[in-house]
């Protein structure tokens, strides 16, 4: 149960906060992932039997310049190299153009994709269902997990699920 997982999502949804919570040990497995991907490793989750290497892919947005286009294409190619993708959204915000752009790009990725709804500490529990509703048919999600990366709610459960799927 080991593998590489890329994290995508709009700015400020909590990707770095999640990675900081997960961050840990040195990389014991490198397998055949390309050099470009190695450089993006941001966090490693390790247990006795499992290791998940997380890769931050900050640049998936509608490109408006050649440089943007280069960054977006680089991020997309990373998604094709990993074992699974984690798409993070902010529970406080309604689904927007930035989310939709990423979702459209994810439709072409033939990997298990997890929807992670972050910042649930900021919303009333009754609101969660309507957030899930906004996304549930957008893609064929492997799993949907509400979490708080900041406070840790449901993070261990999610990591265990992910590790057992890999
Ligand atoms: P990134 O741009 O996706 O990497 O987002 P960051 O990890 O930098 O987080 C953006 C902001 O959201 C920071 O101020 C974080 O402290 C805050 N944040 C991240 N996760 C949570 C969460 O689960 N709950 C709350 N309340 N704030 C969060
Ligand atoms: Mg970040």
TrEMBL record:
GTP binds at residues 9-16, 56-60, 118-121. The keyword Cytoplasm applies. Residues 118-121 are annotated as: G4. The keyword rRNA-binding applies. Its main location: cytoplasm. Residues 9-16 are annotated as: G1. It comes from the Bacteria. It is a peripheral membrane protein. It is found in: Cytoplasm; Cell membrane. Belongs to the TRAFAC class TrmE-Era-EngA-EngB-Septin-like GTPase superfamily. Era GTPase family. Monomer. An essential GTPase that binds both GDP and GTP, with rapid nucleotide exchange. Plays a role in 16S rRNA processing and 30S ribosomal subunit biogenesis and possibly also in cell cycle regulation and energy metabolism. This is GTPase Era. It comes from Furfurilactobacillus curtus. The chain holds residues 8 to 173 of 312 of the full protein.
């Amino acid at each position: 149960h080991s593998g590489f997982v890329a994290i995508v999502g709009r700015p400020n949804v909590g990707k770095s906060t999640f990675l900081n919570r997960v961050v840990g040990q040195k990389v014991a497995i490198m397998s055949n992932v390309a050099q470009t991907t190695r450089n993006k490793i941001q966090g490693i989750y390790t247990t006795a039997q499992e290791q998940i290497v997380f890769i931050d892919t900050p640049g998936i947005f509608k490109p408006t310049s050649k440089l943007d286009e280069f960054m977006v294409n680089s991020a997309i190619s990373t998604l094709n190299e990993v074992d699974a993708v984690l798409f993070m959204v902010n529970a406080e915000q309604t689904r927007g153009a930035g989310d939709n752009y990423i979702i459209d790009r994810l439709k072409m990725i033939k990997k298990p994709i997890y929807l992670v709804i972050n910042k649930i500490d900021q919303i009333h529990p009754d609101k969660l269902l309507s957030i899930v509703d906004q996304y549930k048919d957008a893609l064929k999600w492997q799993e949907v997990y509400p979490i708080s990366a900041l406070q840790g709610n449901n993070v261990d459960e999610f990591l265990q699920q992910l590790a057992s799927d890999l």
